[in-house]
Amino acid sequence: MPDLTVWGWVLAAIAAASVGVAKGGLAMVGMISVPVLSLVMSPVQAAGLMLPIYVVSDIGGLIAFRRHFDMRVLATALPGAIAGIGIGWAGAHVVPAEGVTFIVGAVGLIFALNALMRPQLSGGQRQPSAARGTFWGVLSGYTSFVSHAGAPPWQVYVQPLRLSALTYAGTTTWFFAVCNWVKLVPYAALGQLSPGNLKAAAVLMPVALVAVWAGLRLVRIIPEALFYKLITWGLLAVSLRLIWQAVA
Fold this sequence. Notes:
Layout: H1 6-23, H2 33-37, H3 43-64, H4 71-90, H5 97-117, H6 119-123, H7 130-147, H8 151-158, H9 165-189, H10 195-221, H11 224-247
Helix pairs in contact: 1-3, 1-10, 3-9, 3-10, 4-7, 4-9, 5-7, 5-8, 5-11, 7-8
């Protein structure tokens, strides 16, 4: 188990709670988990510790959103995401994670600024597209593999589809649940699911599961227009954090 101070365990609990809230429907919140935990351990170890928590939290999210998802969106994005995870595994020791982190942050920043400054362009409803779904799915799967940071590319694809809040949250939960199950294989092969990480994850899982319920409650009471505004502002904040993380 990682040798954490009291402050380290507080940060770990915050990271676990963010994962649970994300699986309850507020997907962008989960992106702070690895950056927060990286304050007290290496990003690689943080990603490995968080993955089991993601997988267990997925179960709660899937139960909550078992009737709220769009199969067309999943069908267009998941094949690319699985390919992106494979690419990440193949290049795990070659491609620097900082470059990927910067690109993801830049893409998310551009999209969020466009949505905030020119809302009429993001207000129209698109239909799911195999081409767009594959492109953004590959990028989302790859960045999810690197640091569980697949939400910005996913949001760039899905937000213009203008799904209802519950369908958006459920489709997002199903998408990343499949990605996380697939990631278990390469993470285990790369030694990131060490006994110490698994023990720490087991301690933190109750926090995440309680937070799933909290996230689900928030999604059901937040008005849809406000929901999308919060997602956009969340994307902006996270994207800036990713850019800073890559540069620093």
